[in-house]
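Lecture notes, continued. The same structure-token format from the folding unit now serves as the input rather than the output. Read the line below as a description of shape only.
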């Protein structure tokens, strides 16, 4: 059956490319992907497949119900674009000013649509159900995953698999990781309230710039002296604003920063530490402060058994030339939420063509990827779904084990 899957996917490769290029030319921002959602839903309707629209927003969920009973496996692809001007010189460049598919979500969507079409053709041989989750708004917190889950996209799902095309790794490479693979990405803001005044009379003021400067340095102690060095963490201040004239002492100063972690306990610890240090620094300077900490996506934590299963699957996929453990990425991904509800794994599919020496990274105005990688992603995801169902097939006909009684 896998051989059949690969052959059918090869036959439909051109369609995959044309879908990807169409979507690339017509990108839509997170939470505004109305036309893309309609395009996806129409594709399923034309195939005569059951499809649910407006799931948790612009999300789309389609289903392939196999001829035989069994488990349910979900595959997920995101479909939003970014507020970036496309600077590539290709025939399929974005036609929407200031909006671009600069992360490869057009490729994810084309991959899943064509894979669904092929799996639908094989449904007589499937033992179970395949749920196709087309998720809106991955790029912008709170993201689409959380609302799609609340709206029931994971109902009855036993396991989930997802991939991200990765344009800086060579085509043919699959990267996996057991445990945390992508970080929790949070944002914090601190406003120091001092007491402004004349630059010539500092003794009559509480200089917010001096206090905020001390605070920036004091916050460096969190990663270097508070968090266990075996637990990766980042605390970065990306913005320090206290605009004034040359002879005026600042009344207020505002710091904005990000925290990246892989462990929920470390995440909690850092959130509390920032406040404790801010409180102490302000107390020493007799200033007040306002602190807000906004949680982004949680870390993407892959399940062990499903990741090991994926490694075995990838070994059998033609065109996969190497399989390696990924280093954890400090970037965020709302696939994290699915993995909090069901078992599964998220992996990277290399998408850098051989002739490309210095690929532009994701979110770059000249970002592009090797379209051949879509075929590898489809084969890997398709094999995972088929094999998962085959391994767990006909559960209803399986006699009860002692532990089930
Ligand atoms: Zn992205
Ligand atoms: Zn992405």
């Amino acid at each position: 059956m896998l051989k059949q899957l690969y052959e059918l996917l090869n036959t439909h490769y051109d369609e995959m490319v044309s879908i990807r290029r169409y979507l690339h030319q017509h990108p839509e921002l997170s939470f505004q992907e109305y036309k893309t959602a309609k395009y996806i839903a129409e594709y399923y309707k034309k195939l005569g497949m059951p499809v649910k629209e407006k799931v948790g927003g612009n999300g789309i969920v389609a289903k392939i119900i196999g001829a035989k009973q069994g488990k349910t496996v979900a595959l997920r692809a995101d479909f939003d674009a970014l507020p970036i001007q496309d600077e590539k010189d290709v025939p399929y460049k974005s036609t929407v000013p200031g909006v671009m598919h600069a992360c490869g979500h057009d490729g994810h969507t084309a991959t899943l649509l064509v894979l669904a079409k092929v799996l639908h053709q094989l449904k007589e041989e499937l033992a179970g159900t395949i749920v196709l989750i087309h998720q809106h708004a991955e790029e912008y917190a709170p993201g689409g995953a959380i609302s799609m889950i609340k709206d029931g996209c994971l109902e009855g799902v036993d396991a989930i698999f997802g991939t991200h095309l990765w344009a800086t790794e060579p085509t043919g490479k699959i990267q996996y990781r057991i445990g945390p693979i992508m970080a929790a990405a949070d944002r914090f803001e601190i406003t120091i309230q001092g007491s402004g005044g004349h630059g010539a009379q500092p003794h009559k003021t509480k200089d917010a710039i001096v206090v905020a400067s001390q605070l920036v340095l004091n916050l460096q102690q969190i990663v270097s002296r508070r968090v266990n060095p075996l637990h990766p963490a980042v605390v970065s201040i990306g913005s320090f604003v206290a605009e004034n004239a040359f002879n005026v002492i600042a009344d207020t100063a505002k710091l904005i920063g990000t925290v990246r972690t892989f462990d929920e306990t470390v995440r909690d610890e850092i959130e509390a530490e920032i406040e404790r240090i801010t409180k102490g620094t302000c107390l020493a300077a007799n200033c007040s402060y306002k602190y807000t900490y906004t949680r982004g996506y949680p870390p993407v934590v892959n399940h062990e058994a499903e990741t090991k299963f994926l490694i075995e699957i990838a070994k059998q996929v033609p065109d996969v030339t190497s399989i390696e453990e990924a280093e954890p990425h400090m970037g965020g991904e709302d696939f994290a939420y699915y993995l909090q509800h069901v078992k599964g794994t998220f992996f990277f599919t290399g998408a850098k063509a051989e002739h490309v020496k210095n690929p532009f990274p994701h979110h770059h105005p000249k970002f592009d990827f090797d379209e051949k990688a879509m075929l590898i992603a489809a084969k890997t995801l398709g094999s995972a779904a088929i094999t998962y169902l085959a391994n767990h097939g006909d559960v209803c006909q399986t006699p009860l084990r002692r532990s089930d009684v």
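Point for the exam: Residues 127 and 389 are 6 Å apart (CA to CA).
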